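dumping the sequnces here before i forget
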Amino acid sequence: MNSLPAGSGALDPERVSHGRVPAVTITGLRHRFGDHFAVAGIDLSVEQGEVFGLLGPNGAGKTTTIRLLNTLLPVQEGTVEGLGHDVRRSPMAVRRLLGYVPQQLSVEAALTGRENVSWFARLFDVPRRERKGRVDEILEVMGLADAADRLTSTYSGGMIRRLELAQALVNRPRLLVLDEPTLGLDPVARDGVWQRVQELRQATGMTVLVTTHYMEEAEMLCDRMALMHLGTIRARGTPEKLKAALGPEASLEDVFRHFTDATSEGSDAKGGLREVRSTRRTARRVG
Amino acid sequence: MRKEVCVKSAALAEPRAASVDDRLAVTGLTWRQFPSRTATFCLVELQKLRHDRTELFTRAVQPVLWLVIFGETMSRIHAFPTGHLPYLDFLAPGIIAQSGLFVAIFYGIQIIWERDAGVLTKLLVTPTPRSALIFGKSFAAGVRALAQVVVVMVLSAALGVSLTSNPIKILAAFVIVMLGAAFFSCLSMTVAGAVLKRDRLMGIGQMITMPLFFASNALYPVSIMPGWLRVLSKVNPLSYEVDALRGLLIGSPAHFGEDFLVLVVAVVVGVTAAASLIRRLAR
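..and the predicted 3d for all of it:
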């Protein structure tokens, strides 16, 4: 179905989900805005329980892909499934199972942190009996218990992002989608966000689909990743394999540069590891 | 400390029965979503209002000016044939409806603001049908308008307008105000979905508010209008709102059945129109 190199989906044998539907299945996806193809034919599969990174420079098509998955954009060509539900046929089912944190920092500034989270708990039909407990709990996990009753207009960027994680998680989604979660945050706030995501994932085994262009963060967090450029996937695999394919001392940064600098138009849209190997001689070492 | 947090987050892991989960996902609870989402958006509107009440009072200034300056002056020159009814009494329900209209007609700005702030995007990926989102928001506008209207009603009473003290009639008037505000906020959200820009919406809001107000029975009886204006007044939901409010609050003869029906139909049409355009705001 897609060009995954054999075995690359199974990093940790314990986590392989035998017989479970993939968290995300994307087949032959293309999406155009006017004449421009933001997504120019991708196939992608994310297994349940893994942290999957969608990497690439600005304009690579990452956000468009995510907006197609979370039903914000109508699918024009190809299919997208979230936990086995086709986004076109049953968008409500997908929305119910998915937690989403958009790129832009966005909370309702005229409400307190707690009100923001409990608003989303209601919108996701969290039963009334459980609502207060869950809201308190997730605020605690996100380190916002003390600030919960302050208006969010007084929050810092890092706090807003953690509050958004709380909003996305109060529903206990099966798939958490994070679009550039640390963009524009200072290093301390970034650490705070990633630490929480990692804790959560260790505790819950939740599937996480994350886009970022911070390579060190991607490497630290992701089990597997796909590198997008100009609307196509140029490479995919575990961070280790991607690096190894390029050279013994290659960093993920090098892999990134390798695939995004070489902007040969019309290159194989399904470039997998084989392509990485074939072009590794041209790899540019950056100090 | 770190340990504690980890334990806490472990509580989140509590696996949900996949079958129940999936069934819920597929069936979706759609029929229950309208009342539940509406209640949610109304609650959020009240929470916002609780955090900042200043607007309630700044927005009460204009209606008071209409009542005090326009109303008092026109009463003196007996310009309008309002029968045995003092002009101020005739005017008050019109101004009450107008203050609700002004709140609602700029409600679309809030949806554009939410869009610019990214909040709308997140609302659109919750399991909320577009129509339930609009319906909920329009009633939230109604709640907001109602808070405003209560302030104006109290001020009217203080100015000597003989408003009814019958609680049933007052409650019915609240329902009418909610319906009117729900329609006008849908109109506003429809325009927001069409123009997509805050300043353009402001301009259009300004452009349609006064004609809606003047081409209605809010300030003067329909009987003194020229023919063409009567036609406009006849298709203007504000006229029906004012007619019902006048009947309920000061006991003048009104066509309650017709007024209620027109307002309900207007809300349904408004919700449908706004819901069909809201997707544009998500792009």
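Chain B touches chain A at residues 5-6, 8-14, 16, 21-22, 24-26, 28-30, 33, 36-37, 40, 43-44, 47-48, 51-52, 114, 117-119, 121-129, 282-283 (CB under 8 Å).
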